[in-house]
């Protein structure tokens, strides 16, 4: 189920937006979705470029610097980064990449930078948070299979996670929203610098 259908534009492209859960009432849902999509559109490469041009070196590009640029824009819009939530009394999982508080509940966003197991953990963490009524909504951002070929080896990607969508759609959640956004580079350019791996190189690039 696609919320807005395919969207073609400059910068990173949103090639799919798959809804897994959409039930009850989620305050400000559509304004949050538009905000997240707008922030994704701000991610370019190289920096100060007018699109997202990826060097087609297989497994040659990093992932965290792409995420970090997105997170910086979210922070300017009132999102809390690396936010830890106590989902259950005996469970306090790792921090969420970004959280926006809505009426005392969290709307979470995760941008995948690790392997497919991490993608499963991210979705499960958000689903459990909704079942416990701590999280009201969540979005996971994943690269497309085409983009995956040029990124760090084995990073989670939309196509690899897709077979499990039906399992998450079956959860009985009273009020909540959960979706997965698939992103892809705008163009391929062999002259484009490789995206640094890790975060240290990103600081050097931004100087």
From TrEMBL:
Keywords: Endonuclease, Hydrolase, Nuclease. One of its GO terms (biological process) is DNA restriction-modification system. It holds the Pfam family BamHI. GO terms for molecular function: DNA binding; magnesium ion binding; type II site-specific deoxyribonuclease activity. It comes from the Bacteria. The keyword Nuclease applies. This is BamHI-like type II restriction endonuclease. It comes from Hahella chejuensis (strain KCTC 2396).
